[in-house]
Model the fold of this input.
Amino acid sequence: MNVRLSAIGAAVAFVVSAAWAQHWIGDGIAPVVVTAAVVAAALSVVLAARMSTTASALAATGTIVAGSTLAWDLVRHPEAAPFVAMSAGAIVAVAWMRAHGTNAPRRWMLTGLAGGTVWLASWPAPLVLLLPVASFVWQVVRRPRNPDDRRIALSFVVVLVLASAAAGGVRSLVTHVRIVDVFLPRGAMTWSSGPSLVDVLWSSAGGLLATSPAIYVAVIGLACLWRRQRLVSASGLALLLAIAWTTPFDAPATGFPADRFAVAMPFFVCGLAALFSIAVRALAARPCATAVAALAPLVLWNATMIAVARRGGFGIGEAIVFSDVAGDQARVLHGWLGHPGSWPANLAFAAANRMGPARFDLLYAGRFFSRRDEASARIDVGSDDDSYVGDGWHARESDGTRTFRWARSRVDLLVPMARAMDAVVRVDLQPFPAPGRVQTLTLRVNGQSVAAPTAIAPGWQRTDITVPATRWRAGVNRLVLEFAYEARPSDVNGSSDARPLAAAVDAVTIIPAAAQ
Amino acid sequence: MRRFRAARLALAVAGWTAIALAIVEAVGRQLTRRHPFPFLPESPGHLLLIPLAGLVVLLLVGRRGFSRGLKTQGSTETRRTTAAVFAGLFAIGLAAQLQFGARLQSDGFYYFACLRSMAFDHDADFTNDYRMLGLGDKAHLFVPTPTGYAQSAWAIGPALVWSPFFAVGHVAARWLDATGRADVALDGTSFPYRQAVVIAGLFYALLGSWFALRFARVFTDGRTAAAAVALVMCGSFMLWYALVEPTMTHAPSMAAVAGFAWFWAETMGRRRLWQWTLLGAVAGFIGLVRWQNVLFALLPACDALVLLWRAGRARDWRTARSIVLAGVAFTVAAVVAFTPQLIQWKAIYGHYLAVSPIGPAMRFTAPHVIETLFSSRNGLFAMSPVVYVAVIGLIAFAWRRPAAGVPLVLAVAAMTYFNASVQDWWGSAGYGGRRFDGVAALVVPGMAASIAGLRALTTRRPQIIVGAVAMLAIAWNVTYLAAVNRGVANPARATDFGKVSAYQAETIVNDIGHPFSYPVSLWFALTNGVRPSAYDYLGGGFLGDPKQPYGRITLDETGARLIGDGWSAVMHDGPRAFRAAALRARVMVPLHVAAALDVQIHLRAIASVPPGTLTLVVDTGRARFGPVAVPSDWQTVRIATPKSAWRAGVNRVDLLFAGAGPAGADGRVADVDYLRVQIHEEPAP
Done:
């Protein structure tokens, strides 16, 4: 009964979400892609059903496909490649698991044959071959001088090479690429010097787990699977890390992160299916806690509603439009907790930089000098600068040619840096003229003054201040621009503007000393 | 072992110390604006963390006792646990009040005026009190009553229950005065007095929670009861009136009703004469705090009626006589307890029973029941979804335990009818369904029943919960991809998930409507051919308030949701904002009731149309009116329409222009400022 109910539930959920996805992002469905997706899903179910119930495997597969950015490849920009990689991953995994720990050459031949199909997909799908290879090496190491090993090795490697050549040939024919390119990873392969694990997994700029909560839950499931199915758990996590470590810098710009991890999707399905089974047992064992936890979001809803009301998000006692308020509530909640898909990275970031976890989204992913080839970093004040400006700034303005903000006599600026270095802080600014007074600028970095006050002449100009590496820190740096005076235009020239103004700031640019 | 016990003791002392320090600090800051413990953090948000940590430590230290305390009743462990939780919550609440800047506001001024008048002037004439509290500009308060006093539409009870706190405020004020604070008046109006009643609001909210806990424990186990109370109090409008606006009467009112309900439930079926008398006194008292609370006397009234009916069937006249006697005792005690209010009315209006002319009118024949519960204008369920769940549970509870459940359902229904009959059924400029403060306590057993139901469901079908979580993940993903599709999110660039989540939430609610306005919003959508979310802004409709027999659609940004096709973006002509209409332009006219209406349209023909050539026909969907000439400068065109041209609900009104002259850019022919409808007397056929 439970199995049937789960299967029906999963099917209904999948159909509803597919219809919804089609409604919102649909751009037509390509039969080839649907076929590839169905094949990939079916193979993933076969794999997951080996270690969980069929119902859980079905539900997990539906959730992974509809709950990750693979849905985009299915209904928005029909793209078969991720599903081909997913299918290949499932085929290799099933064949390899059957061969693992055995001396049966036929099974290893099948694994080699399955491994060859991986070359139908593009890089980094072939990384999945590391699993049977590592397994085989491990087998040899554990049992040295085993007479069967040579036969196994021969059958596995020969079939793998032949199958790879065949698959590579097919792919080169289909996609019109040179056959050599099929076997070479394209893009900047950076391994350890590439983006960090935090970037690939949790960053708001295409982090896998940040943009696919279903995969996040599945990875947790993979970890939970460690006790029961160590082989699957370890191989899934190893594959995740291997793909993450080989992600080139320009990967996020080339599509959704889930596409790169498509070959690991069958393992994620296993993890999610396992977690479903574990969760079902755990919930049944703690029904009271579950019931309260299920109702607790209503308290959160109320708390965010009150917060929105206090901020003036709606008129108290007036008819409100709940869709608008829901947006404000979501913002409030995000401000409190940050993006759950970026946990724990954003929580650690918040603790390290003494700010809310919500700031992680823009300040971490947009941190300066994370790439070695960045010549400078520019904060265009008055443009899209909300994540950088702190206290003391007036509203954005534009004079037609440049955007800027007026600053008071002391303004804060947040400068996220990937590493500390000797650098020049270049400030493009214009002082507010007050008769008989000379405006000066003092720069403080992380609470310490870095130079004597610099006099600023009237008109737009550029001021460079050198800041030694010892003043900077990797993370968010707090820059304070201190001016000698502030004055109100209404007091100075009879204008109706009564704001206290010190200077208009157009941009703040950080230039590494080495680049100068 | 001894060392372990000593460590536990030390941790317990540390926990209690943290809570006590935070209470003294927060009370000190509120009443004296000084810091009794300068070493504690300045920020209230950080101060709040100290009692929170203390509470967590206490709960961890007494973990076993806490768990056992929830299961047993009356034990030392229970008392210790309860005391720790409520003391911790009091400290946290005080810090939260500081964070929110809670102060005397809104109706709180009127109750406070009553308190000050009693304490300092020993009278019921609030003329000077209103002026001292800055209410001198409210002329309607000073229209002399038959006895020459100032008006008052507010109960005396809040003043009575606040008085101990007011006394503490007086002590604080005197102390400040003695220490040289010349700006602290000793006349009952300065901040120590005001902040004292702010603290009182929190105290009574917690006292009410404790009463509600005891009330729920009559019917369920401690764990479920505690969860139910926490959910209802933190998930409803009561949280607002405990922390943000604690000087309204709602916290004391909820506390009083919770106490009454507890005593009623505790003595149900075995109530003696003295208990009937005491219950009557409590009923009178809750009426003092908020007049409509007397409706909750329905609870014992139901008991009495059932007992009488049973005695009558059994021809047990002795029992019947004793029940009648108990009823008389109940009523007399209630009247006696209500006497302070009677005396005050006598003093102000010259009668022991009075209705203030400045209070909201009651319309018992035209209640807004649906709106009071589901409307986006402070509808009880729409604004406090947890109460929705609790009321559903209460109905299930009544099914299983009719002796207690049916009176509770009746009382909730009666209060709903009463609140729906108030002229401003939405509760004026208050947050949420505030007039249901007493109901918040009564629905706690319902919430417990909902928890029990959910618990049973989880035991039998845990996969439903798992499936729901999976659906949430899918919904998140689909809406995220929709955000990518619309350019709100970009997987290749740093993304502000706050902005994205706002878009996601808006998308979902816009698509499916506000779930806690179901099923009314779904029905509205079905009958009016609109999305369920449109119920939020179209559901209220014009003409719902007899005091406002008109409605107006302004063609600026505020009216954007009430217009259809055929309109330009908002334009400006000096201070006037308007839109230009094409040959056919549509507006939505939501009406609470159909009526004969005067349609007034303020408009002008665009400059390129020759004067006098443009005409307008108004099509309400049921009839067409016109043509009328469209003026060349801003003027109001009036068209009288019969009742038959309109329907209750959303009317799609098309403005059909026709003329010989050339149209402007994008086919625009006329500029429209607003459209107004007003009820007019339909001439007899």
